[in-house]
Amino acid sequence: MIAIGGAIGTGLFYGSGWAIQTAGPAIILTYLVAAAAIYFVMRAQGEMSVEEPVSGGYISYSSRYFHPFMGFLNGWNAFIFLLASSAAELNALGKYIQYWAPGVPIWVTAAIAVFVLFAINVVGVKFYGESEFWFAIVKVLAIVALIVFGLAMIFFGLGNGGQPVGFANLTAHGGFFPNGISGSVLSVVMVAFAFGGIENLGLAAGEAKDVEKSMPKAVNATFWRLLLFYVGAITILVAIYPWTSLTGKGSPFVDVFVRIGIPAAATIMNLVVMTAVLSAVNSSIFTNSRTFYNLSLQGKAPAFLGKVNGKQVPSRAVLTVFVIMLAGVVLNAAIPNDVFQIFSSVTTFGLICAWSSIVISHLRFRRLRIRNGQAEAIKYKAPFYPYADYIALVFVAVVLVCIAILPDMQVSLLISAAWVLVVFIAYRIYRDRGRRNVSHSDEEDLFTDPVTG
Fold this sequence. Notes:
Elements: H1 2-7, H2 10-13, H3 15-23, H4 27-51, H5 58-66, H6 68-97, H7 106-123, H8 125-156, H9 180-186, H10 188-194, H11 211-240, H12 252-259, H13 263-297, H14 315-334, H15 339-371, H16 387-405, H17 410-437, H18 440-447
Helix pairs in contact: 3-10, 4-11, 4-15, 4-16, 5-6, 5-15, 6-7, 6-13, 6-14, 6-15, 6-17, 7-8, 7-13, 7-14, 8-11, 8-13, 10-15, 12-13, 13-14, 15-16, 15-17
């Protein structure tokens, strides 16, 4: 439930409004294509996790099979991920509050949320787990209710005067592709943002009791449930309400219930999407604080991040996370109207790094197994090798090109490029320090590519 809750968040409840306006009803196909590509990424990671279960997941695999710098970058991308995603999520939260109180500044809502979630995470992992479980329950039940209620509207006219809505809205307002194929392609940026989080599925593979059973089960269950929730919810959304009438100012899920005259349901849905944001940010705090903690233990981050409190919570790492999140609050005070699109695309760039690293690592992992005659012994083979990996790489390349094309998102590439440069300088410092502290043979073990030598 925590894994699903972490993946279902603002990208679906809020970002889908922008995606629908960009693609129209064809957004359904965009989600389907993206889901297929993401499935190939998950299967690639699943294969490596079963064969070589390690804590760190794709971060460890990209260091070993791609390049040490990519592992370093993926690890420290947690920093920019956190700043960008929390700024975007908190921006959406502030806009949800403005549904009731238009005069409340976005940054005020963001600041209150940061301090509340800080308190939750400092208490301990048990309280975090309980809160995240219930956050996730609310989101999942809300989406299921939307799908069931929407199907009743489509086929039986429930809430529409007994007149079945049908599927006419999919083609009645400019056709299924009202903005052409280009609109469908450009919308893939926000769709990719919505699927962010699946790369974390293998982070704890090294700690699982029976990874040969748990990882395939987790991959398959997560994929099919996300497919149901994302594609199912979006299909219902554009079927029961004309895509041209969605305001785009808040969650399209709220818009639907407002427009059909059920204000109480709209209020409940607004509470649900607020819960979705809190859930996603809460999950991000936990995973990123543990990432910083582990980087410290590996000597790739300041030593003070590796300290824990009496409840074994990496409190200094958690505190660092909240300092970064407060920077997101400042950004929401400075540029409240631009934060979501800019930083959701920065987050998407980080996802591109993670997903492409997984796929390239898998290509080299499988090549090494084939060379050593071990390919047939692989227990959980990713399908359609190597073509599925190539398809996934094409997908992430398309996302990157779309970010470069969209005017409102181009600045995110400059931010991302500057970030990569900073991380590369830090990597060189870390590498040079490592070379001074280890023997020549150890150095080769740390920095030699296992595939090419």
